[in-house]
Amino acid sequence: MKYFAHHSMLAAISNLQSTGASILSAMQLLGIVSAAIAFGIGAYHLIWGGVRGRQSSIVWFIGGAVGLVVLMGATAIAEYIDSQVIF
Questions:
Q1: Distance between CA 57 and CA 40 in Å, rounded?
Q2: What digits encode the pLDDT tens for the residues 20-62?
Q3: How far is 10 from 53, CA to CA, in rounded Å?
Q4: Percent of the chain residues topping a pLDDT of 70
Q5: Do residues 65 and 34 lie in contact, with contact meaning Cβ atoms separated by under 8 Å?
């Protein structure tokens, strides 16, 4: 009985890990789309923003780039944590 409980706990952890990986990959896909939209809005401000267009476009460019780097780096962080945790 103890073996069955231990085995089912490992299966639950494995399922939780695969669910987390699926959520992370979906978030990365949405992050790429969001970054493209942010870059497009930044380009719009840069082209049509007038005197303050450059200042407002920089915020969109930096925000989109930082968000994309953090989201893409999340996979590396998750894989590192997964390699360090031993059950």
A1: 10
A2: 888 988 999 999 999 999 999 999 999 999 889 999 999 999 9
A3: 54
A4: 84
A5: no
Domain range list for the chain: 23-84
Residue 57: per-residue pLDDT? 96
Find out whether 12 and 34 touch, Cβ atoms under 8 Å.
no
DSSP 52: G
Distance CA 52, CA 84 (A): 48
Sign of CA dihedral 47, 52, 55, 57: negative
Cα gap 21→67, rounded to integer Å: 19
